[in-house]
Amino acid sequence: MKVWQDGRLVDAGEARIDPFDRGFCLGDGVAESIRAQSGKVMRLASHLARLHSGAGALGITIPCSDKEIVEALSATLVANGLAHGMLRLMISRGPAPGGLATPERTCPSMVILAGPAAAEPPPAKAIIASVTRRNEFSPTARFKTLNDLDNILARREAERLRADDALLLNSQGRLAESTIANLFLVIDGDILTPPVNEGALPGVMRAEVIDRLGAATAQLNPADLASASEAFLTNAGGIRALVTVDGKPIGNGREGSVTARLKAAVS
Fold this sequence. Notes:
2 domains, 29% strand, 267 residues, D-amino Acid Aminotransferase, Chain A, domain 1, globular, D-amino Acid Aminotransferase, Chain A, domain 2, 15 strands, alpha+beta
């Protein structure tokens, strides 16, 4: 496997991270997971916009131009012989002395990983996480960072309970998203998703689904799952039906017609 690291392609076994890099030590960085289809990097403008938003909020300088990022993403795909796959773009603040204080001068680091696209998963069975909640008041809820510990804790809980994913509640006990995806419910014909101010990540695929289907944002409670005729999860990798939560079926417990149409329309 070839990895893009700070301006060049290297073998994965040769890639090296400075032990003082704040991305490694503190999770101090931003990231984007990006789908590639037929050699084309998908929804690139939206991913770059969110990357800049996150880096700006953290005060991290992106170490190259958007044009150079696009060239690096494409080069990483080609070097790994991939036409279809997933790219992981990561930018850290770079190496610095210990502690939380940010140094005046930094040397940000950029790494890009590429891997084949996963096979289409079966409809998902989820739980509602009890070990952690989504902090809708944190600025970091608005972008992707190098720190996914809350999501990892929730995913481990799902794994212990033999579920595919976990839904995260916010501090008010309302539905926010899953560990790796945005959540949509179909209730009385309306397609609804939690708003960003409820803790939902402003997902790139989420935005496209809202535009395509005329979906609306609304506060959603766990009790609303029982009223839904179907549900689905969205992320950069695609669309996945959600058929049970905590062992209780959503609708008839099978992929619904809205989800099937959306999967056929979105590539």
